[in-house]
Amino acid sequence: MNRNQPPEERPADRYHHGDLRTALIRAADEILAEHGLEGFSLREAARRAGVSAAAPAHHFGGAAGLLSEVAVLGFQELAKNLQVDASQGTPTQRLRLQGMGYVRFAMTYPGRFQLMFRRDLLSPDHPALQEAGRRALLLLEETIRAIRSLPNQQPLDPQAQAALLATWSTVHGFAHLALDGKLAHLSAGAPLDDLLAQVLESQWPDP
Fold first, then answer.
1. What is the spatial distance between Cα 201 and Cα 123, in angstroms, rounded to a whole number?
2. Which residues have CB under 8 Å from 98's CB, separation 6+?
3. What is the structure's pLDDT at 132?
4. What is the pLDDT of residues 4-15, one digit of tens each?
5. How far apart are CA 11 and CA 5, in angstroms?
6. Where are the alpha helices (DSSP H) in the chain?
7. What average pLDDT does the segment 62-72 reach?
8. What is the number of H-type helices and E-type strands within the chain?
9. Of 125, 174, 195, 205, which is most buried, counting CB atoms within 10 Å of its CB?
């Protein structure tokens, strides 16, 4: 920071009432979007926010705390992509739409997606992260319940649990393969959406 800069223009003076915290989260999110996990550092996040290298540790306790806040944003955005109105077809059709939404999120926010499930980089007891992850998965669970006609209060039976895990594994694995460029030879030039639709239809065909 330029000490000769007028006080009213110094970067740190722009942040009041929690704005610095938001700025650091935004900076970390931008780094992940541009350079992935390998390009992230607390020092770079601080530099982008215009504050000292010690500021992220002061506000978040370290890299895990800051990255957990970005992961919260990721799960919140994922939940938006998993929200499918009941009017959009049968439960099976809605589950396929959710699968498309899951992969669409991953392709749109690869940095967040690669971070969200890295327990080694996140704070395991972060309350907001736990809640955001639970809410996102619950949207898939609710559709599985509708397919199997299970009330919301009733625990998933073994078959429903297996269906939930199979669906999650399918779209999660597809997203990783797509991001790694491993599906180009299988799509034969067709859009990835078409390939994903075929995969989901084979797993969840119309009754």
1. 37
2. 82, 84, 139, 140, 143
3. 98
4. 443 333 444 444
5. 10
6. 19-35, 42-49, 55-60, 63-82, 91-108, 110-116, 127-148, 158-179, 184-187, 192-203
7. 97
8. 10, 0
9. 174
Whether 161 and 143 map to the same domain: the answer is: yes
Residue 19 is part of a domain; what is its CATH number?
A: 1.10.10.60
Mean pLDDT of the 137-156 span? 93
Question: The whole model's pTM is what?
Answer: 0.87
Residue the block writes with tokens 């589950």: 95
- What percentage of the chain carries pLDDT values higher than 90? 76
* 136 touches 130 (CB < 8 A): no
Residue ending a domain, among 26, 46, 61, is 61
Mean pLDDT value across the chain: 89
Q: Which domain holds residue 99?
A: 63-203
How far apart are the C-alpha atoms of 198 and 54, rounded to whole Å?
Answer: 50
Tell me the residue length of the chain.
Answer: 207
Same domain (yes/no): 97, 179: yes
Give the total number of structural domains in the chain: 2
- Mark whether 113 and 127 lie in a shared domain: yes
The token pair at 123 is 């704070």
Residues 57 and 107 occupy one common structural domain: no
CB atoms near residue 201 (< 10 Å): 14
Which residues contact residue 53 at a Cβ distance below 8 angstroms, ignoring those fewer than 6 apart?
Answer: 42, 43, 46, 47
* 40 and 77 belong to one structural domain: no
Tokens standing for 27?
């900076």
Check if the beta carbon of residue 144 is closer than 8 Å to that of residue 160. yes
